[in-house]
Amino acid sequence: MRRIWLLCLGVVFAAPATLGAEENARLLRKAVIPGGPRIVVVAEGDFEPRSIGSYSLRAYAGTNPRFPYDIFIAGTVRPRDGTVEDVRFSDVDRDGSPEIIVVMRSAGTGGHLSADAFQLHGTVLTLLEAVAGLAEDADPIRALEAKLTNRAEPRAAPTADKPRRRARTLD
Hints:
Elements: H1 2-23, E1 28-32, E2 39-44, E3 52-60, E4 72-81, E5 83-90, E6 99-105, E7 113-121, E8 124-134, H2 140-152
């Protein structure tokens, strides 16, 4: 009888620990930035559903192989609609340095992709561009490159042969 009571007591104390671990389960991705020891870590937000919420992107110096996460460089928190699927690196702006690309997949019908591109210069982490609503088999890096190319094109200035529109005035 005493053994059954101890077994029940063990189950009662073990269940909350197991449930708490599931509640805090989140996705973590880490990768080394090409060309150096710097490391990036992407993590979905604590206690958030896997399908929506936020993610954090943190960069570390990675100079000490025994303690690669000791020297924090920069970080940010961004919203997400889906789960973090991958961390990639590509020079999407053609400046000679790879950008950090965080790729997400929606949990809904279609499994649409989205991606955020970040630049890390020294201790400054900047969102360079974002794309969303891509087809499930689309290449998010090409979509980011295309969006940056379109953004970089200068706007046409008005020419002398085309009159400018005047604002209408109300009498």
